[in-house]
Amino acid sequence: SPQTNGMVERFNGRVATEVLQVCVSSHKDLEILLRGFCFAYNHRPQRVLNGITPDQRITSWLEKHPAARNPNYVKPANREIMSQVNEILDYANDVSHPDTVII
Question: Which range marks the domain in which residue 84 is found?
Fold first, then answer.
């Protein structure tokens, strides 16, 4: 639907501005950053959801519609991934802002 398309475009725009601006050294680091971004996004209250998180919205919807559950669902990353994200961001920040040498 147009509403869903708008939400997808907004999410993709946030990925482009917040994640893809970070220079990473491997595909694994990029995957960790994307998983961390998704975790943070899904646990941040959203104005368009009347102040609840996307995770809360989906959980409450699935309680009302249990047959809609995907039996092959793989649980996404948990809060522990954020420490890995911080390590990658610290490294990326060091690389993009090397020490200056005054001669």
Answer: 2-92
